[in-house]
Amino acid sequence: MPEGRSRRTAALLFPDMKDMMTGWSRQTLARQFLALGGLVSVVAMLMVGSVVTRLIEDAVTRNAAATTALYVDSVIAPLLPDMQRTRDLEEQDRRALDETLGQGALASRLVSFRLSTADGIILYADDSSLIGQTAQHDELAGQALTGRVAADFASFDGAAGPILRIYSPVLQPWSGQVVGVMQFDETAPDLLRDLWRARLHSWLSVAGATIGLFLALSLVVLRGSRTIDRQRVDLAMRVRELSILLSQNQELHQRVQGASRRATALNESYLRRVGADIHDGPAQLIALAALRMDGKAMTGTGEPEERLREAEAVKAHLDEAMKELRSICTGLVLPHIETAAADEIVRQVALTHEKRTGTVVRLSLAEVPEAISPPEKICIYRFVQEALTNSFRHAAGAGQAVAMRTEGCALIIEVADEGPGFSLSAAKPGSLGLSGLRDRIESIGGTFAVETSPRGTLLRMVLSMDGRPKE
């Protein structure tokens, strides 16, 4: 075959083989076992059935032949002369054999009969033309010459069906030596019926045992296959869930890293703002008081009344500076909130805001049955504080309201006002307000949302309470 043609043939065959192997590997273990196990069981059943049937046929044939040979030998043996010395039967011996084989039970069963010496000379046959001839012994006759009865089924002209051909050894009475072979053909309808019945029973027995064993193994494999398939599905679902969790963990890790970086930057910005507030407020007042202290009125050259006025002005500047410092410190230092409940923290922040701004904050607080950790309490405090401060700064404190409630496994805190609202896109990326609140809330696993319109602004903080112990 040319090389190009062989390559084309391989290209046509191997893809099909590959597809077959792929399709086979996709089948369940139960289907694979049913296909292969069924094929092996059928082959094994045929092999075992054939062997068993053959053994039964041989045993039945051998027993039937031995029985018939024993009967024939018991009837004919007394009529035979010394075959070791005789090469021809006398006329009276032939007539005795004719009479014996032509009447009685033997006549109805025997189809043909032949008596030959050990070296193949035919001494007697129902066909007289064969007498005196020398016949070559076949395999079965050779077995008879060894002293064993041999038999097999054969076809015979004029017979209604298969006959049983039997070869029986002729033994010398005083020495037991095989001196001849009797070959006779017997009609055996009962034997054939028994053989068919034995074959049927043997095949049914082998088929029943094979099918029973195959069904038992199939049930075991089916249960195992279902268990494996169920575990495979469960494993795939768990792998999928773990993949989703891993993706979520990676996303949360990235968000935490981003929040940490932004928190660091915002902390620096917050420190700069605190520094700017101190510099622009108390520091300027203290500097102004220092300038007044260096003035002529305070150096001893001025009038007592002028010196008194300057001293009072310096004291006023210093008092105002202290007041602003206290205000700044109040915003920086947290009160003792570790043992306070969430509603108490919110109420305390609102009360402080009202005292500082002179505005009114409406409260709608529900009791939180789950335990709140100190970091979450600090986050709640800062969220409400910053949200109220922004509301006062941008909405002049109009319609300030704080609500806290639980929905399912979530704690929701909302701060709203009735101001003009603002544009989210106009908010500066580095501003401390909304960005700081978002990063602070997300750093503890919460979510932050803003809703704004010309009718007002709402800031929402949501914390998950799932798995928390009851207080």
Order of helical and strand elements = HHHHEEHEEEHHHHEHEEHEE
Fraction of residues in helix = 55-70%
- How many whole angstroms does the radius of gyration measure? 59 Å
The main pleated sheet reads as:
5 strands, antiparallel
CATH architect. name of the domain at 338-471: 2-Layer Sandwich
Multimeric state of these chains? single chain
Mean pLDDT score: 76
List how many beta strands DSSP finds: 10
Strand order of the largest sheet: 2-1-5-4-3
Report the uncertain regions. none
What fold name stands as the CATH topology of the domain at 338-471? Heat Shock Protein 90
Terminal CA distance reads 88 Å
CATH superfamily of the domain at 338-471: Histidine kinase-like ATPase, C-terminal domain
Number of helices: 11
* Overall shape: rod-shaped
How does the helix and strand content classify structurally? alpha+beta
What is the strand content?
15-25%
Level-1 CATH class name of the domain at 338-471:
Alpha Beta
What does this structure look like?
The chain has helices at 3-26, 29-76, 91-102, 104-109, 139-145, 189-280, 282-293, 304-332, 342-357, 374-395, 433-442, and strands at 110-117, 122-125, 150-154, 163-171, 178-187, 362-365, 401-407, 410-417, 447-453, 456-464. It has 471 residues and is an alpha+beta fold. Among the domains are: 81-187, Beta-Lactamase; 281-333; 338-471, Histidine kinase-like ATPase, C-terminal domain (Heat Shock Protein 90, 2-Layer Sandwich), CATH 3.30.565.10. The strands form two sheets. Strands 2-1-5-4-3 form a five-stranded antiparallel beta sheet.
